[in-house]
Amino acid sequence: QVQLVESGGGLVQPGGSLRLSCVASGSIFRIRSMGWYRQAPGKQRELVAGITSGGNTNYANSVKGRFTISRDNANLVYLQMNSLKPEDTAVYYCNAQSITTDYWGQGTQVTVSS
Question: What digits encode the pLDDT tens for the residues 10-19?
Fold first, then answer.
């Protein structure tokens, strides 16, 4: 099993920045890729950014050039969010993938509002 704990969410004004962190524990040797998803009220959960064990990254078109995902060792992943917009408001979830299983954190709220 893999446990994921996110931190770093909060309230920020439009144009501001936040950095989300996710720490994995347990059977971290199983993890192949990690990523961040988000879910806004009334909407489906969507991929924000992902990073493989080899360091390859991918981003949703809506966040390209504003968000940066990075990974430190096998069990830490970050999401640097700049130039935040009100439409970025959502619960952000950390995700880790093994060969057979998706693991999820409990989520952290990000609210972008003036």
Answer: 999 999 999 9
